[in-house]
Amino acid sequence: MKILIIEDELPAVRTLKKMILDIPELEAEIVAITDTVESTIDWLKSNPSPELVFMDIHLPDGLSFDIFNTVQINCPIIFTTAYDQYAIEAFKLNSIDYILKPYNLKDVERAVNKMLNLTSLQLETYLDSQTKTMKKDFTGGFLVMQSDRFLVLRTEEIAYFYTTNERTIACTFSGVQHEIDKSLEGISDMINPNDFTRANRQFIIARKAVKDVDFWFGSRLSVNLVVKVPEKIIVSKLKASKFKEWLVVG
């Protein structure tokens, strides 16, 4: 089986490579080892598809999820990471399994056996759903009512979405507010997570709308936007680390 390893830590590469080669059922051949988002994209564009990918999520130039914005991977993926907060996103991409570092043989064997035990039909279904997920098109805009007519509010015009009193408001960078007939949950599925993030229960904010961030009480963050907001945007302690990462690498 031809296997691509995407991993930037040399000791981890050595450990994972040895574990893979020690699983006889795989009959593994490591076809390449890449260590950044950019080098992985370049390799995938220039070579035949591998049969299995072990993909570290946190790479020096970003999250490996960014790879899917550029190229399509037509084989099963086993995600690996030291950070368990990425599990939900990994499974949204229909990964075969998710391994937490440091690597141990038991976890690697479990993930491999899970893949090997898939029937041909199950694997075909998996790859089909994976392709649909990676090809997902995010909405270009929202239909809003203005006076007696409908207008298309382009996503790139929106600085933030805000919910209050069971109403959802989209505010543009020019400060104009429009009511949207969707919940924040529904909006989250329609917008690019690289460009927008759910800051808290009241706000979804655009990256390019963020002016700066202040430290707040209890290890929380206070986010300041380039436009006026109806209330202070506070990111919880639980979400603070992921929010800061989104600002830097998303």
What attributes does this structure have?
five-stranded antiparallel sheet, 250 residues, 7 helices, single chain, alpha/beta
Give structural notes.
The protein is an alpha/beta fold. Helix content is 29%, strand content 32%. The protein is built from seven helices and 17 strands. Strands 2-1-3-6-7 form a five-stranded parallel beta sheet. The protein is elongated. The mean pLDDT is 86.
Helices, strands, pairings?
Elements: E1 2-6, H1 10-21, E2 29-34, H2 37-46, E3 52-56, E4 58-59, E5 62-63, E6 77-81, H3 87-92, E7 97-100, H4 105-116, H5 120-134, E8 141-146, E9 149-154, E10 158-164, E11 167-172, E12 177-180, H6 184-188, E13 196-198, E14 203-206, E15 210-216, E16 220-225, E17 233-235, H7 237-249
Parallel strand pairs: 1-2, 1-3, 3-6, 6-7
Antiparallel strand pairs: 4-5, 8-9, 10-11, 10-14, 11-12, 13-14, 15-16, 16-17
Summarize the structure.
29% of the residues lie in helices and 32% in strands. The chain has seven helices and 17 strands.
Mean pLDDT: 86
- Secondary-structure element sequence? EHEHEEEEHEHHEEEEEHEEEEEH
Question: Got a strand count?
Answer: 17
Strand content of the residues, in percent?
25-35%
Q: Rg, please?
A: 21 Å
Count of helical regions: 7
From the spread of the alpha carbons, the general shape counts as elongated
Beginning-to-end CA distance, first to last residue: 33 Å
- Give unreliable regions as ranges: none
Helix content percent band:
25-40%
What class do helices, strands and sheet pairing give? alpha/beta
Largest sheet: 5 strands, parallel
The largest sheet has its strands arranged as 2-1-3-6-7
